[in-house]
Design goal:
This protein is an all-alpha fold. Helix content is 78%, strand content 0%. It has one domain. The chain has 21 helices and no strands. The relative contact order is 0.15. It comes from Cellvibrio fibrivorans.
Length: 437
Amino acid sequence: MAIAAVVIAILILVVLITGLKLNPFLAFLVSAISAAIMLGIPLDKIPATIEAGIGAMLGSLAIILCLGAMFGKLVAESGAAQQISRSLMNWCGPKYITWALMLTGFIVGIPLFYNVGFVLLVPLVFSVMYQTKLPAVYLGIPLLAALSVTHGFLPPHPSPVALIPQFGASMGTTLFYGIMVAIPTMIVAGPLFSSRLKSIQSTPLATFKPTDLPEGELPGVANSFITALLPVLLIALSSIAVYTLPTALAETPLIKLLSNSMIVLMIALAIATVTLGLKRGMSIGKVMSVYSDAIKDIAVILLIVAGAGALKQVMVVSGVSEQLAHSLENIALNPLVLAWLIATVIRIALGSATVAGLTAAGIVAPIIPLTGADPNLMVLAIGAGSLMCSHVNDSGFWMYKEYFNLSLKDTFKSWSLMETIIGVMGLMGVLVLDVFV
């Protein structure tokens, strides 16, 4: 019954959006309430469950999405994005631009939480699109594939970091194995896959369209790159500090505050306000107008992400994730494949890669000593499964769809298939490593 309820809820969501053309936020609410009723959540508890899901999702994303949108809009309006894209083209040329974007996503993605990396780097993709006239999806998939790979496979991202102590794995070994799996995975899911997506056309959100300024009015190359990458550099430094400073110092309130993504983005935005705005002749009123325009466009995405949070919370509260996992627990499979499969099923049901990884780990952890599976590879297998088959209950699916302004069909053909390729390639890489370690 639980599996049937999940399938019906997702079908309701798809029909409401694609068939009846209902606003996605309203469709999510209807789907979430329907799922709650079918899964047996007490009727008087349903509103609180919906509110908790929306609050939990927006609590972690709203500030980051808004600050990231402001930052991206200023980078675009100031001409910094135009300068960056022009420099990338000069260094790499059109032939290798997708590889350059993939490497950018990989390097930036290691220290950067996925949603932060998304909102900071997608404007760069659009800037390159306007400069080269190449399709946005063709350019964006390599960068987003690299971000997804780092999110699922590599510490210090939430799921791998949480799984390592549960399995008794080594942070350094998992990172080393993860990079070995990540490189071929992002190449296949990135530049190679995106070469087949050139026919998908999209008109991205206008808020991220860079201002086409004369070359003499562009900010300097150093100013453009340093300011645009400042959030990445600050978060990377804060991540390194947490792991390299003495424990007593790393645990101090000041270090914890400065390592928070929200605080880092606020600092970066304040610096960008000066370096790309005030020092280049913009009035404070003009800069604030840029930020207001960014918020107007991001509001729709916030509502859709909130709706996805409501549906996810219903699945979590009902216990359906644990039911699905336990139904697979006794299947006779290689433990790495079993862990991947459990994470995949929970990912399809719930949408959240982090929740899928953590739930699968709780089921699989007790069987590791009995099977002799390598705990470091188990972390990666679950990470690969947690990225599989992203669809309408995943906030990342909707962020991509709305930012790139795509139809549901084209979102499935590009984003969902990319995530599935990452999940399959990740499992293949883990199984190959298992032969040699």
